[in-house]
UniProtKB/TrEMBL annotation:
<protein>
    <recommendedName>
        <fullName>2-C-methyl-D-erythritol 2,4-cyclodiphosphate synthase</fullName>
        <ecNumber>4.6.1.12</ecNumber>
    </recommendedName>
</protein>
<keyword id="KW-0808">Transferase</keyword>
<feature type="binding site">
    <location>
        <position position="51"/>
    </location>
    <ligand>
        <name>a divalent metal cation</name>
    </ligand>
</feature>
<feature type="binding site">
    <location>
        <begin position="43"/>
        <end position="44"/>
    </location>
    <ligand>
        <name>4-CDP-2-C-methyl-D-erythritol 2-phosphate</name>
    </ligand>
</feature>
<comment type="pathway">
    <text>Isoprenoid biosynthesis; isopentenyl diphosphate biosynthesis via DXP pathway; isopentenyl diphosphate from 1-deoxy-D-xylulose 5-phosphate: step 4/6.</text>
</comment>
<feature type="binding site">
    <location>
        <position position="17"/>
    </location>
    <ligand>
        <name>a divalent metal cation</name>
    </ligand>
</feature>
<dbReference type="Pfam" id="PF02542">
    <property type="entry name" value="YgbB"/>
</dbReference>
<keyword id="KW-0548">Nucleotidyltransferase</keyword>
<dbReference type="GO" id="GO:0046872">
    <property type="term" value="F:metal ion binding"/>
</dbReference>
<comment type="function">
    <text>Involved in the biosynthesis of isopentenyl diphosphate (IPP) and dimethylallyl diphosphate (DMAPP), two major building blocks of isoprenoid compounds. Catalyzes the conversion of 4-diphosphocytidyl-2-C-methyl-D-erythritol 2-phosphate (CDP-ME2P) to 2-C-methyl-D-erythritol 2,4-cyclodiphosphate (ME-CPP) with a corresponding release of cytidine 5-monophosphate (CMP).</text>
</comment>
<dbReference type="InterPro" id="IPR003526">
    <property type="entry name" value="MECDP_synthase"/>
</dbReference>
<feature type="binding site">
    <location>
        <begin position="17"/>
        <end position="19"/>
    </location>
    <ligand>
        <name>4-CDP-2-C-methyl-D-erythritol 2-phosphate</name>
    </ligand>
</feature>
<comment type="similarity">
    <text>Belongs to the IspF family.</text>
</comment>
<comment type="subunit">
    <text>Homotrimer.</text>
</comment>
<dbReference type="GO" id="GO:0016114">
    <property type="term" value="P:terpenoid biosynthetic process"/>
</dbReference>
<keyword id="KW-0479">Metal-binding</keyword>
<feature type="site" description="Transition state stabilizer">
    <location>
        <position position="142"/>
    </location>
</feature>
Length: 166
């Protein structure tokens, strides 16, 4: 393989995030407040979908992970709206000549049910990324009552992004 060959003008990244449930009456998912019997334990707002999206964006360009850019030890991010993280990551991409071609996010939980909120989530992510709605997918799955998500102890999300040259 010739390492001096030009790299194709696309990059793929994937991200994953998880948070335990805690006190509260809602959770944030893809920038949307979703009513729930509890909240999440997190330094920021604990939006697993946006955190996974950030890690996918950062990973596609080998720029570290969300913890490098927004460390939980930094009080500036205590209770922070994760939309700020996505906007920062998007700016890093643009500075380097990239943009998100499409994003695919899967939320993994038994509850809350994501379906009734999926369109609002897609709209929020599309707005944050500055891309068309038909380039953002939000879907959900359960873990069939297995593991920590199956026991309803927490929530997880995974994301995949395709970056294209801007």
């Amino acid at each position: 393989m010739n390492s001096s060959a030009p790299f194709p003008p696309v990059r793929i990244g994937q991200g994953y995030d998880v948070h335990a449930f805690g006190d509260g009456d809602h959770i944030m998912l893809a920038g949307v407040q979703v009513p729930h019997r509890c909240g999440v334990l997190a330094h920021s707002d604990g939006d697993v979908a946006l955190h996974a999206l950030c890690d996918a964006m950062l990973g596609a360009l080998a720029l570290g992970d969300i913890g490098v850019h927004f460390p939980p030890s930094d009080d500036r991010w205590k209770g922070a709206d994760s939309s700020r993280f996505v906007s920062h990551c998007n700016e890093l991409l643009r500075e380097r000549g990239w943009q998100v071609g499409n994003a695919d996010i899967t939320v993994i939980c038994e509850r809350p049910k994501v379906g009734p909120h999926a369109l609002a989530m897609r709209e929020k992510v599309a707005q944050l990324l500055g891309i068309a709605l038909d380039r953002v997918s939000i879907k959900a799955t359960t873990s069939e009552k297995l593991g920590f998500t199956g026991r309803e102890e927490g929530i997880a999300a995974q994301a995949v992004v395709l970056l294209v040259a801007a």
